[in-house]
Amino acid sequence: MNAPAHRRLLADIGTVDAVGIESRVAKYTTRSIKKASKVQGLKLAASMVDLTTLEGKDSAGKVASLCQKALTPHRGMDVPRPAAVCVYPSMVRHAAKHVKGSGVRIASVATAFPSGQAPLKTRLAEVRQAVADGADEIDMVINRGAFHQGEFQLVQDEIAAVLDACGDATLKVILETSELETYDNIRAASFIAMQVLREGDFIKTSTGKTSSNATLGNNQVMLDAIRDHYLTTGIEIAMKPAGGIKTAKQALQFLIAVKETLGDSWLSNTRYRFGASSLLNDLLRQLEAQRTGAYQAPYTFTEDASGY
C-alpha cells in the first residue's frame, strides 16, 4: 500500500469506527418485523433481487429457465418480479430473447469478472459487446491490485472508462470487499468510485466468488459512504450487496440498515439491489408461510417456473 496516498485520501473522507459499525449492525439483527409489515418487506426484497447465474456450466437453456423464473416468480401469489437477471456477457443475447421489454432488466458482469485481470482494452470491449447484445446494466470489478498499490487515480480512471463504454447502461462498481480487507479501505474505494459515477449508478460489495461476501458490516460502511457523498454532492448513488445473502431474514436486516441510514427514498430497486441466486426462493417460502401459515419445503420453489 502507498501509505502517503492512503493517508491523504482518508484525511479527506474520514476513517471508520470499526467497533461502532459492528455495534450498530448487531442491533439490526434484534429487530422484529411482523404481519403486514413483514409481507411488505418480503415483497420489497423480492423486487430488489438481481436473479443471478454465474457458473462455468451456464447455457442458453439454463438462462432461459432463470428468465422464466424472473417473469413468473410464483404462479399462485402476487409477487413482484425481480429487478434483473444477471448473467455472463456471453449469455446476454440469450437473456434478451426472454425478458427484453418485460420490465426485468438484464445485468451482465464484465471487465474480466471476477478477477479483473485483463488489459483495459479487453475489459472495455467486453462491456461494449454486452451492451450491444442487450445488457441494461454492467457489473464491473475494480482493479484491486492498483488500489493496494495506492494508484487511486488509475482505479478511478478505469471506472470512468468503463462508465463511458456503458453509454446509457447503468454501472455497478464491485469493490470486492473481502480483498480490500479493512473498513477504511472499503470506505476509500467507495468514494473513489462514487466521485465519477452518475446518479443511479451503484457501488456493490462483492463478486460472490471469494470466501467472504456481503455482510451487514461492509454493507453499513458503504451505506454510510453513500450518505456522506449525498450530503456533500446531492447525488444519489445506489447500493448492491451480493454474495452470501440467502435467507429472507438476512434480507430484511439489510433493508432495516437502508431505512435507518438512507431513509425511505432508497427503499426501491432503483436504489438498492440484492445480488443472489437462492434468496428469491426463500422470500417465496416466507411469503407462502405468511399467506397459508405453513412453510413449504426448500425444493418446492425451483430455479425455473415449473413449480410455483
Outline the structure in words.
The protein is an alpha/beta fold. It has one domain (3-291): TIM Barrel, CATH 3.20.20. The protein is built from 13 helices and eight strands. The chain has helices at residues 3-13, 18-28, 35-47, 60-71, 92-99, 120-133, 144-148, 152-166, 177-180, 183-194, 216-233, 248-262, 279-292, and strands at residues 49-52, 84-87, 105-109, 137-141, 170-174, 202-204, 238-240, 274-276. An eight-stranded parallel beta sheet has the order 7-6-5-4-3-2-1-8. Helix 1 (3-13) crosses helix 10 (183-194) and helix 6 packs parallel to helix 8 (152-166). The longest helix is centred in the C-terminal third of the chain and has 18 residues, at 216-233. The protein is globular. The N and C termini lie far apart (51 Å). GO terms for molecular function: deoxyribose-phosphate aldolase activity. Belongs to the DeoC/FbaB aldolase family. DeoC type 2 subfamily. It is an enzyme of class 4 (lyase). It catalyses: 2-deoxy-D-ribose 5-phosphate = D-glyceraldehyde 3-phosphate + acetaldehyde. This is Deoxyribose-phosphate aldolase.
Q: Which labels suit this protein?
A:
308 residues; eight-stranded parallel sheet; DeoC; 13 helices; disordered C terminus
In total, the number of domains comes to 1
Q: Based on the structure given, which CATH architecture is correct?
A: Alpha-Beta Barrel
Approximate helicity band: 40-55%
Q: Name the beta content range.
A: 5-15%
Give the H and E element order: HHHEHEHEHEHHEHHEHEHEH
Distance between the termini: 51 Å
Q: Averaging pLDDT over every residue, what do you get?
A: 93
Query: CATH-wise, what's the superfamily?
Result: Aldolase class I
Give the overall silhouette: globular
> Tell me, what is the CATH class?
Alpha Beta
Output the strand order for the largest sheet.
7-6-5-4-3-2-1-8
Q: What fold name goes in the CATH topology slot?
A: TIM Barrel
**Main beta sheet:** 8 strands, parallel
User: Helical segment tally?
Assistant: 13
Q: Would you count the extended β strands for me? A: 8
Pfam families: DeoC
Keywords: Lyase, Schiff base
Pathway: Carbohydrate degradation; 2-deoxy-D-ribose 1-phosphate degradation; D-glyceraldehyde 3-phosphate and acetaldehyde from 2-deoxy-alpha-D-ribose 1-phosphate: step 2/2
Family: Belongs to the DeoC/FbaB aldolase family. DeoC type 2 subfamily.
